[in-house]
Amino acid sequence: MSTQNRSVTLNNGVQMPILGFGVFQVPGEQTEQVVADALAAGYRAIDTAASYGNEEAVGRAIAASGIAREDLFVTTKMWIQHTGEDTAKREFEKSLRHLGLDYVDLYLIHQPLGDYYSSWRAMQKIYGEGWVKAIGVSNFYPDRLVDLITHNDIVPAVNQIETHPFFQRTADQQLMAEYGVQIESWGPFAEGKNDLFTNPALTGIGAAHGKSVAQVVLRWLIQRDVVVIPKSVKPERMAQNLDVFDFALTDDEMARIAALDTGTSLFFDHRDPQMVKWLGGRRVD
Ligand SMILES: NC(=O)c1ccc[n+]([C@@H]2O[C@H](COP(=O)([O-])OP(=O)(O)OC[C@H]3O[C@@H](n4cnc5c(N)ncnc54)[C@H](OP(=O)(O)O)[C@@H]3O)[C@@H](O)[C@H]2O)c1
Fold first, then answer.
1. Using one digit for the tens of pLDDT, what is the confidence trace for 167-193?
2. Per the database record, which ranges form the NADP-dependent oxidoreductase domain (predicted)?
3. Is 110 annotated in some ligand binding site?
């Protein structure tokens, strides 16, 4: 098995592994073991969030792993309820405490909702003080991203957005590249929606390479220079999802996957007023 990961260079020169591990919806009591298994499998980038309620378990697994801090890349995110200049700083310090770390590699605004301009000003300061290696955003559609960039000093290093074969975000990626923002996929498997794991085009391409659908999807994203953070609670799948650096998809295979794009979210639209209201009311403490 080849677990030869590679990195992307963010707009401030920081190196970020192109393949990491996500812990959304990992049950709280399982998270420490799951992250320990992921680190043992070879993952060195972990993606969590204050709203996942598992930063402490992630921190315990990191501490127990004995892996040198500089060899890890830890991302966490600030929830909507904590946007604002002072609250953002307090919330960041809380995440740091929960993780048991003295810096975070990447700190993201989780949603483009609430007073996130104030949060961004606080994050620029936190970054300037050296508590984070890079700052970025998540779930920003191009209009919100360009507005944030236009009215602030620091260009987000990353925008983490829903990206998978049924919602490919190629135009978003192109725009982000023009501004120097790295695209990062969440939900690379669309959480299995739309029968992704039995999709005939994807299974056919997998068969040609002796690879699973999951591996084909991750490889396709990596070949597009999209950072990926697949989630699995199963060690054999963790290993499988890392094993994507010993094959390459042909131009024809890339084009067949491109044809699966529906151009719409399989989850929800951050511009839907009902969803904006629901997310804004969600409390994470
Ligand atoms: N910024 C945001 O708003 C946002 C939103 C969603 C997610 N995220 C981040 O992105 C990460 C990944 O997204 P996600 O967790 O939503 O979904 P995902 O990675 O697209 O899919 C996870 C699902 O795929 C299954 N799976 C994993 N590997 C597999 C394999 N090799 N074969 C078959 N099934 C496999 C998992 O099952 P098992 O666990 O049972 O293996 C789980 O049901 C999250 O964990 C989180 O860190 C961010």
1. 999 999 999 999 999 999 999 999 999
2. 25-261
3. yes
